[in-house]
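Collaboration report, partner site 2.

Our partner group contributed sequences for two proteins of shared interest, and the home lab folded both. The records are reproduced in the order in which they were received, starting with the first partner submission.
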Amino acid sequence: MGDEVRIGYSFWGFLGPGVTDTPDGGRSHRRTLVDGLHTAGHDIIFLQPNRDLCEAGDDLTGHYRWDAGLPDIDALFLEWRWPIPGRNTTPCGRPGHTCDLHRQADLLAHYTHRLGTSTILWDKDRRLPATDPLRRTRNVTVCEPALYPTPGAVPLLFPVADTAIDAAAPDALAALPRPDPLCYVGNQYDRDDAFDTYFAPAAAQLPHLVAGKWTDTARWPDVRFVGRVPFPRVAEIYADALATVLLLPRRYAAAGQMTQRIFEAVLAGCAPILPADVRNGAAFVPPSLIVRNATDVRHRVGWLAEIAGTGEHARLIAECLRHLNPFRLSTQLDVLDRLLRHPEPVAS
C-alpha cells in the first residue's frame, strides 16, 4: 500500500462533545485514535453521517472529511454496529430510525465483499457472534478491546493519548478536594448484577452519585441517580470523587475487556475499584483496588478517605497511571500499523 493508507472510517457517534442524550462512549477515545492515525501519515475519510454538525452543531469540516458515497479507499475500518430493534432495524424514514446499520451493510457489500478491500472490524461491544462468517472472511480482521478476545480476533484497546498519561501529576491530583466518596458514570446496559453485587449496597452507606442512562431503578431506592450528563461533565464528576467502581457486563469481565471509564477516572485522580471477577484484573489496577463485594468497596473508600491528600494517596494515583500503559495510543497505533500494512490477520 505504500506509506500512506487511505482509510474509510465508519462510526456512529461524535468526535466532539456531541449531545447529552446519546450512549456514545467513543467520544473519550475516538478522536484520539483518528488524530493518531493522521499524525502517523494516514488519510481518513468518515463514511457515516456527520453527527457532530447535524446534531450537535459542531462544525469540524475544517479538520476532518466526511463522504456519503463510496470513495476510493485502501482499507475499511468499522466500529461495529449491531441490530437494535425499533431503531436501526426499521425502514428508512420511519420516526426514530437511524441508518447506521444500513450504511454499514452497504459498506461491507461494496468494499469488503465486492472489491475485496482490507477490512478491520472493531467489535467494541462484543456483539459479533463467534460463528459470524465475517470472522472467516479472508480480507477481514476482527479486533476487540479485550486482553482475551474471541479466538482469531486481535486485541485493540481503547486508546488514551500518551501525552495525557505523561502529563498527569499525582501530587496535584491527590491534593484536589473530593467531596464525593463514590461515583459511577455509565449506562445501565447489562450491568444490573454487577451493580447489585459491588455498588448499590456500598452506595447506601456512602455519599455518592450515578450518572448515565438508568431506566429501571426501582429496585435501588437508596441510590442517587442523576441521569445523563453532558460529556464535559464526566471529567468534573471524577475530579470530585475519591473512587469509582468499574462495573462491567459479564461478557466484558470474562474477556478482560475494560471500558474507557478506567482512564477517564484515573486521569482525574479518581481511584478505580475493580471487581475480582474481571479476568486478569491486576493488569488494570493495583491489587489494593480489587474487591470481592460491596463490603470491600466500602472499606476501600474508607481507606481512601483516610489517606486523601497524603503522599500515600499520590503514590496510589501514580500506580494507577502506570496501569494505563496498555491503553497508550502509541501501543494501539502499532497494532493498527501492522494490520493496515499487512492486511492478513495477525495471530492473537
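Second partner submission, folded after the first:
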Amino acid sequence: MKTNGVIPGMKQWLYSLLPAAAILLLFNGCGVSVNYSMTGTSTPAKTISISEFYNNTDLGPANLGQTFTNQLKTYFIQNSSIAVVAEEGELQMEGEITDFRVTPIAPVATSDPNQINQASSTRLTITVKATYVNTLDDSFSFKDKTFSFYKDFPNDQNLTDVQEQYSKAIFDRIINDLFNASVANW
C-alpha cells in the first residue's frame, strides 16, 4: 500500500540513515581515514601456515586431525584475506586434538532398584590444544591454549550415525573461537 508515493515505514527508515550518512560525509570531508575490514581480522599479516593437527585421542576416528585441519584452513580462506601457505607464514598455527569423549548425561531413574539407571542423552566433547605464533607481533602469540566444545544428542541415536555431523558442528565452534583468539584479537 502506498501513501503519497512513499511505502509505509520507508520514510522513517530513510530518516534513520541520515545521521550515519552525515557522519561519513563529515569524516570524508575532513580527511579522516576510516579503515574498516570486512574480513574480521585485525592483523596486518598476509600469510598463515597451518600445520596438520594431530589426533592424539583414544576414541576419535583416525581422520579427525586431518578433518579439523582442513576445516580450519577453509575457515581462514573464507573469513579473512590472509592466504594459507604450506610453510613459513607470517602467522603460524599448529596443535593436536587431545580429547574425544562420549559421556552419558541426563540420567533417568527407574522405579526398579535392580535395574540400572540409564541416561536419556549423551554428550560428545572434543578438545583441541593449539599453539599460535605471530611473527609480526609476538604479544599476540600463545602456546598450548585449549579450546573445547560439546554436542548433546539423545540416546536413541547411534554415535556412529551422527559422529561426522556432530564433529563438524563442534569443530565449527572451536575454529571460530580459535580464529577469534588468534587473528581477530577479541
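Feedback sent to the partner group on the second submission included the following. The longest strand covers residues 91-108. The chain has three helices and six strands.
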